[in-house]
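Inverse folding, one chain.
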């Protein structure tokens, strides 16, 4: 099976964790950037990455690269690609692009010319053209165009991989699943260690910890991937991959996962999300203030994701909360590795403990830190 370049996109701050994931799957890491890991492999390797990666967002499989000065060149070069052997004529197609070229003022024009080239070619050979639109629910083509160099990828993920499929009730502004997986990994959670998550919200951190501890790969809860909609999709190989992944799932763990929140609706949502993810039975949910969370005596990792106080006036109201987190760590979490995930450095200073590390992350466009503490 032919190999090609594969790019796995990743949010800023998560690249080191994604790099380790790619290497653990036996794939070479050719290079990295702030928002991507570059490897090579077959279309089956792209499927495997979609199934297994916890921190990646899109798995892009390269199918062409060419010199391209303007939109006419783009159409011409794309028209030479045998799209009728790649995308079914009755499929739904979407195009996304990342363009920096002096002749293109709006990337939507590049998307339009790309779409036209693809559907015109398929129409000429098959007598029917795919429907198209912005939704990434079918076949997805991704264009990366810099100056006069253009690379064409199949987005084998389709929708972003952070959409695991288990978070049916998100609540407020929940932490993205891939970010939560990175935070859990950064905390160094190991088999046999307890994981405690006060202020759990919709339960994403606790669920990702449960997935990691039981070796459940996140792609098992997804119902759709971009590669499902490509000609040559090997359904038999995909079923084998999933069976192999399921056979390695650990059903019980020798430790506890605790998730608490004072909001009863948050705990209800967390339970339902955990049930969809297949890990509800592994998590002890508690309705209580974070300071009243029952913490097991055997140490492990405790992570809190409090409000950041980004709106005017909110910061002053959160000072006591952050001081309370410090008191909770000192009084109830001795022997644990503590973590506070926040974007507010001023409030982090109110915790009253010296951070061992301050690990940078991005929650969307907001620069955050995971403040890590050894709680002696």
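Residues assigned per position:
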């Amino acid at each position: 099976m032919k190999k090609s370049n594969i790019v796995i996109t990743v949010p800023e701050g998560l690249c080191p964790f994604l790099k380790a994931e790619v290497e653990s799957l036996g794939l070479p890491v050719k290079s990295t950037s702030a928002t991507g890991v570059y490897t090579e492999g077959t279309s089956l390797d792209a499927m495997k990455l979609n199934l297994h990666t916890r921190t990646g967002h899109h798995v892009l499989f390269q199918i062409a690269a060419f010199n391209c000065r303007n939109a006419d060149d783009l159409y011409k070069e794309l028209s030479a690609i045998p799209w009728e052997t790649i995308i079914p004529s009755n499929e739904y197609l979407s195009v996304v692009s990342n363009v920096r070229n002096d002749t293109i003022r709006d990337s939507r024009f590049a998307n339009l010319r790309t779409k036209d080239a693809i559907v015109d070619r398929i129409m000429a050979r098959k007598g029917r053209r795919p429907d198209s639109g912005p939704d990434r629910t079918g076949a997805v083509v991704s264009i990366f165009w810099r100056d006069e160099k253009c690379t064409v990828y199949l987005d084998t993920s389709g929708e972003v991989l952070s959409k695991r499929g288990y978070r049916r009730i998100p609540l407020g502004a929940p932490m993205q699943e891939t970010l939560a997986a990175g935070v859990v990994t950064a905390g160094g959670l190991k088999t046999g260690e307890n994981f405690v998550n006060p202020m759990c919200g919709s339960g994403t951190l606790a669920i990702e910890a449960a997935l990691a501890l039981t070796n459940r790969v996140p792609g098992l809860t997804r119902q759709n991937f971009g590669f499902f909609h490509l000609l040559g999709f090997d359904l038999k190989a995909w079923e084998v991959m999933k069976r192999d992944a399921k056979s390695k799932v650990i059903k019980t763990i020798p430790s506890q996962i605790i998730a608490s929140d004072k909001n009863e609706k948050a705990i209800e949502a967390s339970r339902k999300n955990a049930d969809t993810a297949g890990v509800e039975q592994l998590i002890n949910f508690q309705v209580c203030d974070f300071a009243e969370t029952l913490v097991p005596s055997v140490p492990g990792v405790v992570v809190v994701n409090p409000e950041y106080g980004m709106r005017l006036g909110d910061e002053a109201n959160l000072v006591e909360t952050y001081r309370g987190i410090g008191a909770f760590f000192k009084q109830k979490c001795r022997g644990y590795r503590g973590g506070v995930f926040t974007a507010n450095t001023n409030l982090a200073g109110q915790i009253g403990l010296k951070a061992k590390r301050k690990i940078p992350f991005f929650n969307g466009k907001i620069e955050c830190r995971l403040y890590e503490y050894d709680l002696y």
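The radius of gyration is 23 Å. The mean pLDDT is 96.
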